[in-house]
Amino acid sequence: MNLNDKNQRWVEIFLVLITVCITCVLYQTVGHKMIVLNLFYLPVVLAGFFLGRYRAGVLALLSVVGATIVIVGNMNAFAAVSSPVIVGLSITVWGSVLGLTSLLGLELCATIAQRKLSKREKPMWGWLKCSHATCRTPTRNSSHEPCESPP
Question: Does an H or E element contain 83, and which?
C-alpha cells in the first residue's frame, strides 16, 4: 500500500508512540513480562507492511532497546528465574526473532501480492460472473472468457 509522505509520517509517529506505550506497559507490569514482549510484534509488522523493511527494522531496534532498558532496570522481576544469563539469553532470542520478523514479513507480503496478481490473470475460484454489462450468466468453469463487448 502506497502512502503519501504526510500519511507515512503520521503512521511512523503513531507506531513509535505505540511502541513507547508498550514499553511503559512492560515497565508497569508486575509479573509475566515475557508475555508483554509479544505485544511488540504488532507495530513492527504494521511498519513492515506500510512503511517498508528499513523502517520496520528501525522500529524493531527501538523496541529491543526500550525493552532491554526496562528489563535491566529491574531484572529480578522479569521472570521466575532471576539468573542474568537466562534473562539475557531470552531477551537476545526475542530480539533476534523480532528483527527477523521485521525483515522477512515484508518479503512474505510481496510474495502474496505477486501471487494475487498472477491469479487475477487466470482465476481459479468458485462462481464467476462476466464483467460485461450484458452477460449475467454465472459459470463454474475457471477458463470462462468474458463476452465480446458490443460495438
Answer: none
Residue with cell 450468466: 137
CB neighbours of 32 closer than 8 A, spacing ≥ 6?
A: none
The low-confidence residues of the chain, meaning pLDDT below 50, are 123-130, 132-133, 140-142, 144, 148-151
Q: Which domain holds residue 95?
A: 5-124
Inside any domain, residue 38: yes
pLDDT of residue 150: 46
Q: Is residue 54 part of a domain?
A: yes
59 phi/psi in degrees, rounded to 5: -65, -35
Question: Could you tell me if residue 14 is inside a domain?
Answer: yes
Burial class (CB in 10 A: 0-12, 13-18, 19+), 143: exposed
Question: CA nearest 34: which of 24, 26, 42?
Answer: 26
Q: Is the pTM of this model over 0.85?
A: no
Total structural domains within the chain: 1
Q: What is the pLDDT of residue 77?
A: 75
